[in-house]
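chain below, 243 aa
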Amino acid sequence: MYKIIKNNTSMMASYESKKEAYNAILSILFEITKNVPANSIEMINAKGRLDFLIDGKLFAFYQIVEFDANADENDKNSDSCWYEERWYDSDLENALLYHEVPVTEKTMRLMREKCKHIFDDKSARNEILEDMAFEIKEAIQKAQEDQSPAYIMIITKKTAKYPKKSLNYFAARPWKGTYVKTLVGNTAEDFFEETDIEGLFYQLIDNRKGIRISHGSVDIDRIAEEISEYQKNNGGKLDDIDK
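prediction:
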């Protein structure tokens, strides 16, 4: 039997063959990247593990390991204690004294009997654990957003589908043109490392919010001004897309 280790953490599912586990990894990656530009995705088989990169940065890594399906169930399902809580007689005594109840053998015995199972219901504490997990999830998502490029620029060109349409038509409606490529960056200069986009058309998008900032004919000065203005306003409105 085989199982998948993602980022050094074992996933629950098991597989009959290594090929089945490999296909499961591909399915996971397909689901994760279905909205990611194909040219920004890379998978590298490196020293017994699959490194999954987006825009050249390591996003996750997977390993396929073999295990004995007949291993002792208690060993496989052992639940390690990560925290232990202890209550002492002094805690009961303090509670009695708080309400001016004499601390005697009888009152202490009654307190032990009444308090013995008051913490058995862990539902409220489990909710606290879930809240902590959610905070971690938000922190991870924010870290991923901070690492992702701030802007996407979709480049198109005039299409033969509309031979009578002028360049101004496609500048006003770049989504009507033929797709050329998708660029990512944090500044206008990042986009113009690509020297073959002059004279084409673009749509500039806030990668982290999914908001289209502007569109038109490619011009570095204009795009730099739009990014500067967008950052100054700390937001932007989604363009109306012509149907």
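The chain has eight helices and nine strands. Helices lie at 18-33, 73-76, 89-98, 105-115, 123-147, 167-172, 188-191, 220-233.
thats it, cya
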